Amino acid sequence: MAEDWIVLDVAERRKNWWVVGYFTTICVAVAVAVAVSAGSGVLWWVFSIAGAWIMAIGYIINRGYGRTLVTPEGIFTFNGVLGGKVIRWADVVDIEKRHHTARSSSWWDLRVTVTSGSSLAIPGAFTSKLNDEKFDAKLALLHQYWRQANR
């Protein structure tokens, strides 16, 4: 088997940038509301909101531009500025589609459980759709490589 990349396509990355825009708008609105309100500690709140925004934007951008190289030897993840990991197929215990929920949204991602028991997210594979064919194809690709490596 040759190498395959797991990445978000252009439409999925564009949607990710819309999330950045919405989140930024909310953070700016909250920061302005706090700054306009009278009271002590306003500057502390504005810097706290800005810090939370920076961490969240880093996560969202890495989620959108992270990618994974799948080879017969293993999985190589690339998370942009956060670095990457190498996972050999011999260390893989399980590959699963995991569902997450928040107050107003839900999403799925792919996670690899390794022999140490830790669970690692696969960059380039997440969706907010219940039945997403592209997402399911990425899961099937990982299972196919894993089965081939265990023969």
Q: How is this structure best described in words?
A:
By secondary structure, this protein is an alpha+beta fold. It is built from three helices and seven strands. The protein has helices at residues 10-36, 42-65, 133-149; strands at 4-6, 67-70, 74-78, 84-88, 92-101, 106-114, 119-127. The strands form two sheets. A four-stranded antiparallel beta sheet has the order 1-2-3-4, covered by helices on one side. A three-stranded antiparallel beta sheet has the order 5-6-7, sandwiched between helices. Strand 6 (106-114) and strand 7 form a beta hairpin. The longest helix has 27 residues, at 10-36. The radius of gyration is 19 Å and the shape is elongated. The two termini are 13 Å apart. The model has no long low-confidence stretch (mean pLDDT 90).
| H/E series | EHHEEEEEEH
Structural shape: elongated
Query: What gyration radius follows from the Cα positions, in whole Å?
Result: 19 Å
Gap between N and C termini, in Å? 13 Å
Strand content: 25-35%
* Spatial strand sequence of the major β-sheet: 1-2-3-4
Please summarize the sheet with the most strands: 4 strands, antiparallel
Which structural class should the secondary elements be placed in?
A: alpha+beta
Give the strand tally.
7
Low-confidence stretches: none
Proportion of helical residues: 40-55%
Instruction: List the total number of helices.
Output: 3
